[in-house]
Amino acid sequence: MNTLNEKIVELLKGVIDPELMVNVVDLGLVYAAKINETDHKINIDLTLTSPGCPMGDMIVEDAKQLILANYPAYEVNIDLVWEPAWTLENLTEKGKAALGHF
Amino acid sequence: MNQIASQNAPSSWVVVPHFMFGAITWLVVTLLIVFNSAAFTQHFFNPILLSITHLLALGWITMVIFGALYQLIPVIMEVKLFSEKLAFSSFFLLGFGAILLAISFWFFSFGTLMFIAGSIIVIAVVLFVLNVLVTAYQSTKKSIERTFIVTAVIWLLFTVLAGLTLAINFTHTFLKPSHLELLKLHAHAGLAGWMIQLIIGVSSRLLPMFMVAHNLTTIKLTFAYYLINLGLIIGIVSLYLQVNYVVTISVILVVVGIFGYLSYLYEAYQKRVKKQLDIGMKQSALSFVVFVIPLAAIIILALNFEILQRITLPLSVAYGSAIFIGFFTSLIMGQTYKTLPFIIWLKVYRGKIGKVKMPLPKELYHEKIAIAQVWIFALGFILFLLGILTTINFLVSISGIVLFLSVALYNFNIVKIIFHQPKNIE
User: Fold this and answer.
1) Which long-range contacts (CB under 8 A, 24 or more apart) does B422-425 make?
2) Which residue from A18, A37, B25, B416 lies 20 to 30 Å from B161 (Cα-Cα)?
3) Domain segments of chain B: what residues?
4) Can you tell me the mean pLDDT for B322-343?
């Protein structure tokens, strides 16, 4: 991952799952974050812990607004993806600790 | 991209009145317990107890289930609710019918008033069932949870139709079994067919979602589904035909089925990713622990031990109270904190991300008050059950006061959630 893409991921740490109260990056919900400087596009692949998650579109909207606030000249596209399905292994060490896995 | 559940959510004006009406009804019931404790220490076939039970079953439990279901069906079946107008009409009829029915039981008025009240409730339920079935039909998501919900609403229809038939039978007796046996039949169609199955259908999807638990053994739910429904059908036919030993077998089938479901939930609890349970989940967990009491009581009652004949009556009232107040009510109060704040949060903050200060859904209620509510409730329930089992009226009244305090706190939080206002970013 290049530095610019890493910057997007870093920004996404500001998006909190309101049920679990952990950010989407540490939950391992961000599958891909790519910035295309030539086309001025940012594409993000995001998953949710459960396909029927009632908070789904709020999380997506929150992520989109956050990126747009930092990259106003860019077109932000967030795709919800379900493959591979989210598992416990996706959690970062910080995510595990926040959820009580020590 | 998959459909996201919250895009299918109904307007909050359809859902919220159900919670408000239910919470006020439950508060009124606690006062009725305080001033009518004797109703709980005599034979259960008494006007006041029948009145309170129907108010609780229809005006509180069924009312909140209706409201919550309109919100949760889109989550479980991944489809939009068929009609909000139908839902709102059903709300008015159910509320009005429940009050009217409670009044007619209170004054033991089995004639026209009870018939009108029963008919209004049947219409309310027909509208609700229609709404759920058409919605379920539109869903492509075929799951065991959906099957439980569809079966439960059909049992609800059977329950209210049976109730109306019993009301007619009170004044123009045409059925062979006694009113008491028919009441058991009607009550268990409602308790196990409607309420327990509905709770299984909804909770087996939602609780693992709240705890983030994956890879669960869903065959346990299929096992529960067939045992519960087989047991119920056999039980109702044998109650009607008065074949007592078959009734006992049916009770065992239903209870074993329920344990299949409890084992599924326990598996979800063990596999949960979110280790700490919030206050809503703690009260829900408490309700599942309490659930073992009525399950044990019904087995004891069904086995009809000679030695326990003397306590059959208080045990029967304790059984009903433990399931209505210990399990259903406690679970609903707990799950209110998992659903209502999200419903209001979505209503208030949809489209406002970045424009206003966003709290977490759990910040919409007062957590310390919710914690106090749970503990006071636990104390009130223990006193209530002790009062019933020892047939001490004074203890039942005291428990009513304690429960009133808990429900008053619950109502405070409900009002706080419903009237939540967003704060602008300074």
Assistant:
1) B422/B348, B422/B349, B422/B352, B422/B356, B422/B357, B423/B356, B423/B357, B424/B355, B424/B356, B424/B357, B425/B355, B425/B356, B425/B357
2) B25
3) 313-426
4) 94
Question: Nearest CB to A52: which of B209, B273, B346?
Answer: B209
The predicted-structure confidence for B244-271, as pLDDT tens digits, reads as follows 899 999 999 999 999 999 999 999 999 9
DSSP code, position B192: I
Q: What are the residue boundaries of the structural domains of chain A, listed by start?
A: 3-88
Tokens standing for residue B417: 């959630």
| DSSP 8-state assignment for residue B328 | I
ipTM of the complex: 0.79
Q: Where are the alpha helices (DSSP H) in B172-243?
A: 179-188, 197-211, 219-241
- Residue A58: its chain B contacts at CB < 8 A? 6, 346, 349-350, 353
Amino acid at B356: V
Residue A80 bridge partners (DSSP): A46
User: Which listed CATH number (3.30.300.130, 3.40.50.2300, 3.30.530.80, 3.30.70.890) goes with A3-88?
Assistant: 3.30.300.130
**Residue showing tokens 């439980």:** B148
At A53 the pLDDT is 72
Condensed to tens digits (0 to 9), the pLDDT of residues B132-181 reads 999 999 888 788 999 999 999 999 999 999 999 999 998 888 888 888 88
Nearest chain B Cα distance for residue A84, angstroms:
14
Distance in angstroms (rounded) separating the CA atoms of residues B376 and A42 = 52
pTM of the model: 0.90
Q: Inter-chain contact B75–A56, Cβ cutoff 8 Å? A: no
Q: Which amino acid is at B156?
A: L
